[in-house]
Structure formats: structure tokens, C-alpha cells
DNA sequence: GCCATTTGACCTTG
DNA sequence: CAAGGTCAAATGGC
């Protein structure tokens, strides 16, 4: 029974790999021949298919490894003679499993100022939608800490969380600690919204509110600095700049799945290798890797690439350590057309 | 009725 | 064991 499942998985893996190889061959022929028939769209389509193929394979491997982990854990649970393990239900088991990984999840802190010298800049809204799931009085802190998790946690299994706390010394400064990366499709919407914005600027068109990313609470902020915890390198943060590949030809759903699998796998790898693998790759040059295949080959794509490079430089210069690219990218892209949704509701974010 | 927030209890971590 | 973090029932708004 179990052997058949493994065999089927193996066959699926092989099929995907073979398909990927064939597609790569086709792409190679297209590139080498550079005939009129090998349009840019065709090449992009092939690249997307190849990437999709390999993502599927990696996802399968990921699932298999997760199953193995679960088996190992349940095995350990069986060995546990404590009374609690005997009554531990599925929920408790799941909770324990999640919590054990908690410390391995990458975490970084940002300090943002509600007001800047010039007025209002930036945005506490980092482009993602969050749901508050708790609030806690912190020892020695005047203000309670609010706990937020991704709105799509249940729907898409996105495990990104953050907690927000107002500074004791300066109430206009807020510390936002992010934990985990988004595996939901919000990242894609962010990307699309950014593209739309740039496109609008180029075409001198008016803003269409429908093109704005989903925003729960628009609060204007200026990031001050960011600290990293559990991050041996800046790679965790800068990898946000590596836009997941998106399929222009594939369906929306497939597109979403691609991003989902990308980020989910990165999270998984982060958890697995945060202690060993990541700490070894400290090369700064890798921080600025923006794979060509992740960008459109159109003129606009090149524009995006240039823009992103500029943004990275700006972020590096303005912050001694690093900053949340999600916030910065959004903020910088917003600078062209401020929509100052002010006044905002303080009590909503820092209710006590 | 659905969804987000609040809040006390519970769990994990150091 | 204390403090931080999360869960989940209760509550409120739309």
C-alpha cells in the first residue's frame, strides 16, 4: 500500500523532471535558432513551464520530507512516557509541532516613525493584510503589544506574523517585528499593483483605486531602522526582492500556486537550514541577485529591474542594517503619488 | 450571518 | 517559573 504510493510519487517526479528537461530543450532550440517563430512570449511561456515543473517536483519532495518529519515526530511522541503525551490530541500535537519550529522562523524588527520631518511618508500598511489575534501587556513597556497574523493564514496557510509595539520613549515610533515570510498571494498582488503604478506614471494616467493593493489601514510612516534577529545574513530579507516568477500565459490559479510553492518552499528551507545553510552563505553579492528569469523581458521588465536595483541601493544606503523590503519597496513606489489617507486612527492600531 | 477584534486562558521558551 | 506568544470563545460591526 505504502509502497504503491511511493512508487506513484516517484513516477510523478520522474514525469515532471522529464517534462522539464524537454521544455528546457525546446527553449534552448528557440534561443539558439532565434528564428522569427521563437517569439519572446514563447520563450517566456517555456521558462514558466520549466519553472512550474521544477516547482512541482520540489513541492512533492517537500511534502515527502514533511511526511517523514511527521513520522519521526510521532515516533518520538510514542516514546514519550509522560502522562501528557497519552492524552495529547491532534490539536495539541499540531501546536507542539508548530511551536518547535517557531524559533527557527526568521525574524526582523523595524522601527517606523509615524511622522517624518516633511510630513507624512511611508506606510505602516506594508501591502499585506493582517488580522489581529492577540494583545499582550509587555513587562516594562507602557504600551501593549499587538499580535497580527496574515489574513490568509487559514485559506492559504500563510504563516507570516508580526507584532506591533509603540516605543516607550517616543510614542511616535513603532517597533514592528515580522516573523516568517508570506506564502500567500498577496506578494503577487503587491507586485502587480507596483507594476500598475509604474505603468501609470509612465503613461501619465490617473490612479484607479481598483489597482491599489488591498489595504486595511492606511497609516503614513517613515521607517527608521531595522534589526534582524535569527537572521545570520541579510539574505532572508533581501530575498524579498527576488520576485517570484509569474506566468503570463498560465491561469491565474496556476500563477498563484507558483508563488505559493516558491515562498512556501523558501520558508521550509529557511526552517530547515536556518542554522547551517544560511549561516554559511554570507556573500554580500548574493544579496543583490535578481534573477533575470524573474523579470519580464519586455522593456517594462527592464525598467522594473533598473528600478529595483535603485531601490536596493537606496535601502542599503539609508539603513545601517536592513529594512523590510516589503515595506520599503511599497513605500518607495508610493513616493511618486502620495495618497495621504490621514488622519488615521491611532487607537485602532494601539488600542489599550 | 460573516468576519474582525477583544480578551482571558493556555502553552512554549529561556 | 516568569514572560512572551498563541488559541479560541465572546463580542461587536457591517
UniProtKB/TrEMBL annotation:
Pfam name, any one: WRKY
Listed Gene3D superfamilies: WRKY domain
GO biological process, one term: leaf senescence
PROSITE patterns found in the cross-reference section: WRKY
Residues in WRKY domain copies: 119-182
SMART domains: WRKY
Location within or outside the cell: Nucleus
UniProt keyword list: DNA-binding, Nucleus, Transcription, Transcription regulation
Record's GO cellular component terms: nucleus
MF annotations from Gene Ontology: DNA-binding transcription factor activity; transcription cis-regulatory region binding
Family: Belongs to the WRKY group III family.
Name of the featured protein: WRKY domain-containing protein
